[in-house]
Amino acid sequence: MLGCGLPAVTLALRAGKSGIASDPKRICLGFRSSLTGVLPPCALKSTLTRKERKTMAPAVVQSYTAAQEAVHLASLAPSDIATDRTGLVFGNDSQIIATLEEQEAYERTKATYAMGSGHVFRCMNSSVSVNLGVRFGIRGPCWTVSCACASAAYAVCQAFDCIRFGRLDRVLVGGCQELNWQSVASFDGIGAFSTNPDPLAASRPFDRERDGLVPSGGAAVLVLEAEDIAKKRGAKVYGEILGFGVSSDGCDLSVPDGEGLARAIEAALADAGAGLDEIDLVSAHATSTVVGDAAEAMSLSRVFHGKCPRVTALKSLTGHEFWMSGVSQIVYTAAMADAGFIAATANYTAPDAQTAGIPVVTRRIDRPANRVLHNAAGLGGANAALIVRYGEEWRRMRCVVVGSGISGLVAALLLARAGYSVTVLEASNHPAPLLRGFERDGLHFETGFHCAGGLAHDHVLGRWLRSFEVYDDLKPSTESEGDTFWFDDGTQLRVPYGPPMVQALAQAFPDQRSHLADFFAREEAVLEASPYTNPFCMQEPCLSESTDTLLDALSPFPDHLRAILALRSLRYGALPEEALWRDYALVDGPYVQSGGSWQGGGARLAELFCGKLREAGVELVTQARCVALSATKAGILGVHCAGGAMYPAGLCVFTGHPAQIPALLPKGLLRPVYTSRLLTARESISAVLLFCEVQEKFWEGISLYLLPTTSLHFAKAFEPDPVFCLHCEGGKKGPQPALLLAIVPEGHPFVRDNPLYREEKSRLVAHLIRSVERRIPGIRGKWRVVDAATPATFARWQYGSLGSLYGFLHAKTSVPYLPITRVPGLLLAGQNILLPGILGCIISAALAVGFIIGHDQVLKEFRRCSGSA
Fold first, then answer.
1. Are 449 and 605 in contact (CB under 8 A)?
2. Cα 551 to Cα 515: distance, rounded to the nearest angstrom
3. Which residues are registered as beta bridge partners of 594?
4. How many Cβ atoms sit within 10 Å of the Cβ of residue 677?
5. How far is the C-alpha of 799 from the C-alpha of 793, rounded, in Å?
6. Does the pLDDT of residue 43 top 50, yes or no?
7. What are phi and psi of 677, to 5 degrees?
């Protein structure tokens, strides 16, 4: 037993977490084996009254809870269930604890009436089907199947036939097994259980050291439904049953011969119309007994002629769940397929002579299975085999990416490469409008890209662009790479990108060499700690935030050096006093590796990505503004656009401002506290942006920072001397476009519908022009402002309430947002989720897609381009 609910089970499978433990009571009772599966604490009785529980043994209560979750995930209303076209079938072969309780009640009181009215319903082998049929109001047939450990698998087979022959529209099909010592004492008596003292190493399917099974139990439920009805409802489809086969050995009560299971597998393949080469995974029955595993291995070898597909044996984690295992194995595989991985078989080291040739999966595979063969076998020689298709639905699933910035383009390309059908929706007339920049008065202004860190061939951004196959088509700019800093006290310093940066700062501040070395070493350590920035790091990505601030790292430096280093926090919109060291290092660290720009800027990058998307079959739709997300608690159904167009989808990657999400989703899908966080989250810095033309550059490098004081102080834009950032790529003859940003720490009170907006904007622009001309000698008469944008403009473009440059604030006072949401299939990406900039948006998109197809799969090409795949 791995957990209560599908999310917990999925996490346990992904982590390879065992549900097996030792039961002290069994030790006291003298059991040969104290091992058992353990049900984690969970609220199993929360929706049942005391009167209702009187007729339900613990395993039936567990079955009711599992059925509730299955109905919820299937988005079925009570009216869908309470019909004569809905049935219920359960695999179960005992209610021992209820029978014993009935007997004990009589012996204690010597009166039959003392047992109560509920005991008769607790003791029946059909207790689960009659109780659940009444609790859910099912008017179709409800029955129980009993054939030992193949019971639940037989239940699935019978339910499948009822649907495909048109007798029923849907069936709740499940299995349950008691978790108590009374129900398995006889098995312990005949030595069927493992006596390995280590609970985590005891269940060893197909391994040469296996010495018996580990008893387990619980309950698992599936909703089987006719395909056309499920799709018409917009239900999420986890898998499709293609066919089954059943058989009996007919030779021994307890020793399987292997021939019977082989016949069942062959019948299942024929029923599904599947060839041997179409099965890419076997979900083995494999209970970890010497004889049983050997017989199943023989069956697989016979059917597949010695070329068996890869095999996973999940009872290594769960123990043997007896009557329920035929359904639970399908639930586990569906959970893995939905999350994009195949769990590893635990405790497998080497086969014996009988199990040699079975390719057991010993490491997690971060890609889901397509067609899976599920085996089940029980005492008395009962066998069942089912063929279930998971991967086809996964590959066919349509995904809509809302927004075509760099995050949207990257997410779409990664999903398309993984086999998804992808549509990208963009509200503007062209994909990636901000990345492409703007035209003003015949000049092109780079608003989405000025320069990038880690751009060299073997550095972090270069590797990512190589993995997308766009790097070789980017031509580096010949402009001098670096920034220039001018202080009002007359100090000027040029700081290049890459390793010369460290040398230049050490030469300018020789007494700070050791502190600088430590500063940049710490920065490098942050980059090395994530597989998304260091391809040689193989650990799982960590999204936790560091608590130390940038000022802690800057504390030993004098004012000028402190200001130069601290200003880099502006690249992701945080003021130095609030900047987190981890975020600072992730943004600034790549510039210490290398930095610069390429010819054509953001427009060239957008053009290359759009070309790759067209090659991958991605549909790019412009003038498609998202106005609503269609969804239920079971997941995303589609995206509605202005004008009435609707794009059906099982997945949606939303790259816009997350504060839009509550208004787009139906009410009630998001928790109130999450909605409040989205709507009230602090935002990053803003700016007044001047679109300028300069006759000549008055500084070296790409950017010029004008600092009003020797220490770092951010005045508001309308105060005498704000912090200015002046960007100009250069490299051209004659007049050149330049962008001048006046930093606005806390937004600006102007709003566009204010009747005085234009007048106040004009006064502000005139004030900023005077400030620049006062602080840059000789610029008067050699530049002009052709347009301007205020925070009110940014609020319109990027939705944020204060007109921030980079959306949500990433700082010590802010709780980070994850790509995943509580709405299944809805993920968030973009600068609001991780960090801004080309690299930040790429990694944000990769993280979001990693939660869909697996992080290892996303990182595969990144690592290959680094020679570390």
1. yes
2. 14
3. none
4. 17
5. 10
6. no
7. -60, -45
Phi, psi of 100 (to 5 degrees): -65, -40
pLDDT tens string 613-632: 999 989 999 999 999 998 88
Which residue, among 233, 244, 102, has the nearest Cα to 159 in the 3D structure?
244
Residue 189's identity, in one-letter code, is G
Q: Would you say the C-alpha torsion 11, 14, 15, 20 has a positive or negative sign? A: positive
CA-based nearest residue to 818, from 835, 837, 833: 833
Q: CB within 8 A of 126, min separation 6: which ones?
A: 92, 143, 144
Show the DSSP H helices in 628-749 as ranges. 661-664, 672-680
Q: Is the pLDDT of residue 10 over 90?
A: no
Is residue 394 over pLDDT 60? Answer: no
Tell me how far apart the alpha carbons of residues 816 and 832 are, in angstroms, rounded to a whole number. Answer: 9
- Token digits for 775? 């602080």
Please tell me which residue in 142, 147, 157, 320 is annotated as part of the active site: 320
Tokens of 266: 């062959």
Identify the three-state secondary structure at position 78.
Answer: helix
Active-site hit among 4, 123, 147, 149? 149
State the DSSP code for 344. P
The chain-wide mean pLDDT, for the chain, equals: 86
Active site residue 727: no
- 652 carries an active-site annotation: no
Among 704, 152, 639, smallest CA distance to 376 is for 152
Question: Is 285 a known active-site residue?
Answer: yes
% the chain with pLDDT above 90: 43
Q: Look at phi and psi of residue 834 and say left if phi exceeds 0, alpha if psi is from -120 to 50, else beta.
A: alpha
Distances (CA, A) of 486 to 507, 728, 730: 17, 16, 19
Tokens of 114: 């003392």
Best CA proximity match to 420, nearest among 832, 72, 827: 827
| β-sheet bridge partners, residue 311 | 282, 360
DSSP state of 181: S
Q: 44-48, 144-148, 212-216, 640-644: lowest mean pLDDT where?
A: 44-48
Q: Output the CA torsion 559→449→574→773 (10° steps).
A: 50
Query: CA 218 → CA 44, 186, 212, 723, 805, distances in Å?
Result: 11, 19, 20, 64, 52
Distance from the Cα of residue 221 to its chain's centroid: 24
How does residue 359 score in pLDDT terms, banded at 50, 70 and 90?
A: very high
Side-chain half-sphere of 612: how many Cα atoms within 13 Å? 24
Catalytic residue among 4, 157, 285, 626: 285
Residue 775 CB-density burial (10 A; 0-12 exposed, 13-18 middle, 19+ buried): middle
Half-sphere exposure of 458 (CA within 13 A, CB side): 4
Residue range 436-462, pLDDT digits in tens: 988 888 888 888 788 899 999 899 999
Note the Cα 376 to chain centre separation in Å.
32
Q: What is the DSSP letter of 91?
A: E
Interval 206-226 mean pLDDT? 94
Residue 856 CB neighbour total at 10 angstroms: 18
Residues whose CB falls within 8 Å of the CB of residue 6, separated by 6 or more in sequence, listed in order: 69, 73, 331, 335
Of 203-217, 287-301, 530-544, 665-679, the range with the lowest mean pLDDT is 530-544
Beta bridge partners of 224: 171
> What is the pLDDT averaged over residues 319-335?
92
Residue 488 banded pLDDT, cuts 50, 70, 90:
confident
Whether 154 contacts 244, CB under 8 Å = no
Pairing verdict, β 382-389 and 421-425 = unpaired
